[in-house]
Amino acid sequence: MKNTNILISGGGVAGPALAYWLRRYGFDATVVERAPGPRAGGYAVDFRGESMTVLERMGILDEVRKFSTDMRDSEVVDSTGRHVVTMPSAIFAGELEVLKSDLSDILYDLTKGETEYLFDNSITAVAEGEDGVLVSFERGEPRRFDLVVGADGMYSKVRSLVFGDHADYIHHLGVYNAIFATDNFLNLDHEGRACQLGNGKSANVFSTRNNTEARAAMYFASELLDYDRRDIDAQKRLIAERFAGAGWEVPRLLRELAASSDLYLTPVGQVRMDTWSAGRVVLLGDACACASPLSGRGTSQALIGAYVLAGELATAAGDYRAAFAAYEQELRDYVKINQEGAHEVVGMLFAEPPPQEFLDAMAANPPEADPESLTLKNY
Q1: Could you give all domains of the chain from N- to C-terminal order, each with its CATH number?
Q2: Which part of the chain is the FAD-binding domain (predicted)?
Q3: How many whole angstroms separate alpha carbon 55 and alpha carbon 64?
Q4: Is residue 132 a contact partner of residue 144, using CB atoms and an 8 Å limit?
Q5: For the chain, how far is it from start to end, CA to CA, in angstroms?
Q6: Shortest CA distance to 252 belongs to which of 218, 229, 220?
Q7: Better-predicted residue by pLDDT, 374 or 373
Q8: DSSP element (H, E) containing 201
Q9: Alpha-carbon dihedral angle through residues 322, 323, 325, 327, given to the nearest 10 degrees
Q10: Strands 44-47 and 281-283, bridge-based pairing
C-alpha cells in the first residue's frame, strides 16, 4: 500500500500523530483542519503506560518533557477555602503532563515538512467509489483519496457524513466542562486547587507555563443543552448563569471568563460504536472511542491509536479492510477499560471527596500500571 494517498480530518493530536507514522511507512498524508492553525488553548493532557512508549518511538519524548507542567499534589477545598484533602498528582497528571496546545505545536512542527496541511477548511461530502474516495471541501475543489481517516473529535464531521447522526453514537454523561485560561491569581506553584460547590457544580484552577498563568475548569451537571458551539459569547453567558451565586473563587473566575479568548465548552460524553470503519473510511481517537474528557485517557488513546492504525496499514499487504479490522481488534479491550473508568470519575465529580487513604492507594496503583492493559506491537 505504499504511496497510498490518505486524507486525515482533524489537526489536533490523533491526526498529526497518524500523519507522522504514515510518512514513516511511505504513505502520503494530507491533514484538513477547520481551525486556522494548530489548535491553541485547551486543557492539560497526560501520558501513561504505552503512550509514553509511542512518544519515545516518535523521537519526541525529550521535547515533550521540556513542556512538562511539573504538577505537584493539588488541594481540594470547601466553599470557604478550607482544606479537605490532598489529591496526589499521580492520579491526574500521569507519568508526564503538558498543555494540549504545546503537544499540538510539537506534532505540527514534526510533520509539517512532509505533510500537506489544509487549515481553515473542512470536509463537506464523502463519496466512495471503486478506485477511492471523492472528498468535497468548504474551500477548494473536490479531491480523490485512497483512504479517509476521521480524527476530528467527539463531534466528528467524517463520522456524521459516513456513519450517521451524532445522537446515534454520543452518550452524554450528564456533565458539561468549561476550560479557559486565567491569570494565576491564586499564586499556585505547580499545583491546582479544586472546590465542590454543591448543587451539581465544581471548579478547578491549576497553574501552567511555570506558574506564569493558569487554567480554570468549571463543571456543571446538566442534560444536553441546545447552543451554538461556535458562539463563544453565548457560551460565556450560559456558564455565568449556571454559576451565578456560587461561592469560593467563582466570582473571580467568571470575571476571568468574560475576558477570555480561548473558552472550550463541551458536554462530557462517550462515543460508542459497533464498528470503527466503513469501506475506505476509518475513525480514530475520540471520533470512534472517546472515553470522555474526564477520563484522562483521550490523548493516550489518540497517540496509541495512530501508532496501531498506521502499523496495521503498513503490514496489511494492500488490504485496507484487514488493516482496519486488525486495528480495531487491537484496541477494543483497551478502550473498554478506559470508558468504564470514566464512569467512575463522573460519579465522583460532585460527591464528597473520598478519604485521603483512598486517594493515596489510588495513586499507588493507577490503572495503566497493569502491564496487561495493553502491549504495543513492533510494526
Answers
A1: 5-170+269-369 (3.50.50.60)
A2: 4-330
A3: 8
A4: yes
A5: 15
A6: 218
A7: 374
A8: strand 201-208
A9: 160
A10: unpaired
